[in-house]
Design goal:
heterodimer, A: about 325 residues, mainly alpha, two-stranded antiparallel ribbon, 2 strands, B: about 375 residues, 2 domains, 15 helices
Chain lengths: ~325, ~375
């Protein structure tokens, strides 16, 4: 593989890792607060649809982004209502949310646009376009580093940079603020947080809302950045890959970045090459498709470093009387 | 003292949840500019008023009985098997291998062989997550989700690289031999020249599903193993003190659950398409979750819920044919049923419990 091809694959890795990273961090906030969320997929899908639909109707991608976030956060509200207020089963709620999004997006898309469950293609200001970072042009002539800067680092849409900036931000919020300390505590020992006089319900709702916000960004990027418009089921299991990445990262922000880049790389390679010939041994493309899931199962099984979820994860909190 | 009578718990709570889901579904139909009453009458007309409609409805019902039973057996041990989709996918592979590579003189023998193959492959796909849950504590929900995707990739590989006949374009196995053709409802019930059940997909597998329902009822409530499964589901520590091995029960429960999911493939693969295709499960593995929740994990409830979802599926196809309402309406209804009967159960239950308590106090 020559250098320009490598750059192209890595560039596509960055693009494909972005929605995974945003959704993964979304899940991180929720699960660190003790709310399991297998509804990342549905929230992304909802956000993808509403961002594309509003961007198509108004011509403004920023209004689209807001609508996408609102759609995703509405589903977060349902998840919070079911799993925090009514102490329902968080996994079942997540499953319901995924189906709700899969059905509603097509239903509304058909009603609004009558194009077989898709939105019109986004053009011009309806999409997030690449941002050329300063000096990208002039530095591109420098060998090795120049192309890396101008092609790999520069030229992505704003949401890509937001996603990568979210990693240190998440780390800072979780480990360096009072809110983050309480959020992690509420996922490990909610009774202790309650005893300290801090609202468990409030904290968990806050975590679920942040999760909705980040999933909104992820979905909006899918429909308005990575692609130009919404098509049915366009998340294509990315929410589950993000979930896998979250476990792979053992619920930690920096690890999440590497996990998402790894899974993004697998997607990029699978997209570019069908079957990979490694000197006689052919790796079929299906192995690339399945690898994130296989790796996650291996990590979960604890054969290579054990992934231990937050202790109170999945348990509704019942206040002592 | 129970908070409310058993009939309220078994019938009233799911009925109210279902009613809430139905009201919201009607609002969704209104919101997309169609009439809920008209939609319902079209669905009933298409799914229940003609024998062919029933033939389709019962075909879907067969799938949902198997997956619903699979989810509910696991629920009894407090395991959430979300991997019915993957287990059914593997079940399909089991059916195809058995039917294609063994010579079958008659469909009755082929049905037995294919069922064993389907159940074995489905169980195999469930046993790895079960082992990881029992021995390594890996959350079975996550591992079964992952196994759904791995199964899809595996099937894709097998179909494209191994089973696809040379020169064929679409990823599918060769057609099954004619001797393994399962009798449809038309073959079984329609007299010569009659149009009863004409072209409908329902086949003899429906009765296999009914037998499976009875077997699951016997297993859960009439055998020692069933008792152990329920004991584990109610309290793991109590089960452990009673000398029940959680590891054994988790693995056995998931073997049964996976086997039931796998059996679904007999209906779709051998009964309908008569060859192995991609995505033959069509999400039935997930509908099993809704069916099990609505049926309160009891085979009778599962059967009724499966018929309801069979009706919704066939009715939804009719709607998509005659109106501007896409098939995805059914997915929304399914989501609302899961939401209200599963996740928002307490929303209905808590006020009802209070009501019954107040009534009882009034009497005393």
């Amino acid at each position: 593989m020559d250098f320009p091809t490598l750059l192209q694959v890595l560039d596509s890795t960055v693009r494909l890792a972005t929605p995974l990273l945003l959704a993964c961090l979304a899940g991180l906030f929720s699960e660190r607060a003790g709310i399991f969320d297998i509804g990342l997929e549905g929230k992304m899908l909802m956000a993808a649809f509403f961002s594309a639909a509003v961007a198509a109707m108004t011509g403004s991608v920023w209004l689209g982004l807001l609508a996408g976030i609102a759609g995703s956060m509405a589903l977060s509200g349902i998840h919070g209502l079911a799993s925090i207020t009514f102490r329902g089963n968080q996994l079942i709620s997540g499953v319901a949310i995924n189906f709700l999004a899969a059905g509603l997006t097509v239903l509304i898309a058909q009603h609004w646009f009558s194009q077989g469950g898709r939105t019109p293609s986004l053009i011009g200001a309806g999409r997030f376009t690449g941002i050329t970072l300063p000096f990208a042009e002039s530095l591109s002539t420098i060998p090795i580093l120049g192309p890396i800067y101008s092609e790999l680092i520069s030229g992505h849409s704003i949401l890509v940079y937001v996603a990568f900036a979210c990693v240190p931000l998440t780390w800072w919020v979780l480990y360096r603020t009072r809110f983050g300390l309480r959020l992690r505590a509420v996922g490990e020992a909610p009774e202790a947080v309650d005893t300290a006089g801090v609202s468990v319900i409030g904290l968990r709702y806050a975590a679920v809302a942040i999760c909705g916000l980040l999933c909104g960004l992820a979905g909006a990027y899918l429909a308005t950045g990575l692609q130009a418009g919404f098509v049915k089921d366009m998340t294509a299991g990315r929410g589950y890959i993000a979930l896998a990445a979250l476990i792979f990262a053992k619920w930690r922000p920096w690890y999440a970045l590497w996990a998402c880049l790894l899974f993004g790389l697998l997607q990029a390679v699978a997209l570019r090459y069908q079957n990979i010939d490694l000197g006689g041994v052919v790796i079929p493309v299906q192995v690339m498709d399945a690898l994130p899931y296989i790796l996650t199962v291996i990590i979960l099984a604890g054969f290579v470093g054990k992934a231990i979820p937050p202790r109170a994860g999945g348990e509704p909190y019942v206040k002592e009387r | 003292m129970d908070k409310m009578p058993a009939w309220a718990d078994a019938v009233l709570v799911p009925l109210i949840s279902l009613l809430l889901a139905a009201i919201l579904s009607a609002l969704v139909i209104l919101a997309i500019g169609e009439s809920p009453a008209e939609a319902l009458s079209l669905m009933i007309e298409g799914a229940l008023m003609r024998s062919t409609g029933w033939g389709y409805t019962l075909y879907y019902t067969t799938n949902f009985i198997f997956t619903g039973l699979a989810v509910s057996v696991a629920f009894h041990a407090r395991l959430f098997n979300i991997g019915g989709e993957g287990q059914a996918t593997l079940g399909g592979l089991g059916v195809a291998l058995v039917v294609l590579y063994l010579p079958w003189p008659h469909w009755t023998l082929a049905l037995v062989g294919a069922s064993l193959g389907a159940a074995a492959f489905g169980a195999l796909w469930a046993v790895i997550p079960a082992y990881l849950q029992a021995k390594r504590g890996s959350h079975i929900v996550i591992t079964t989700i992952m196994f759904n995707f791995i199964a899809a990739a595996l099937l894709n590989y097998v179909l494209v690289n191994l089973l696809k006949p040379a020169g064929a374009m679409d990823p599918a196995s060769p057609l099954f031999p004619p001797a393994t053709h399962l009798p449809t409802f038309q073959d079984m019930f329609a007299p010569e020249g009659s149009t009863l059940f004409r072209g409908a997909l329902a086949n003899i597998t429906f009765f296999l599903a009914l037998i499976a329902s009875v077997a699951v009822w016997l297993l859960i409530w009439r055998t020692r193993l069933g008792y152990e499964i329920r004991a584990l589901g109610h309290s793991e520590s109590a089960a452990r003190y009673a000398g029940i091995s959680p590891v054994r029960i988790i693995i056995v429960t998931m073997l049964i659950s996976g086997g039931l999911s796998g059996l679904m493939a007999v209906n779709t693969t051998m009964g309908e398409s008569e060859r192995l295709v991609m995505n033959a499960t069509e999400g039935a593995g997930f509908i099993g979750i809704a069916v099990a929740l609505m049926g309160r994990n009891h085979p009778v409830g599962v059967l009724l819920a499966a018929i309801l979802f069979g009706f919704l599926y066939q009715g939804g196809a009719e709607l998509a044919l005659w109106t501007g309402i896409p098939r995805e309406l059914i997915v929304v209804i399914q989501a609302l049923v899961i939401l209200f009967t599963g996740a928002l159960d307490n929303m209905v239950r808590t006020p009802l419990e209070k009501l019954f308590l107040a009534m009882r106090k009034g009497k005393a």
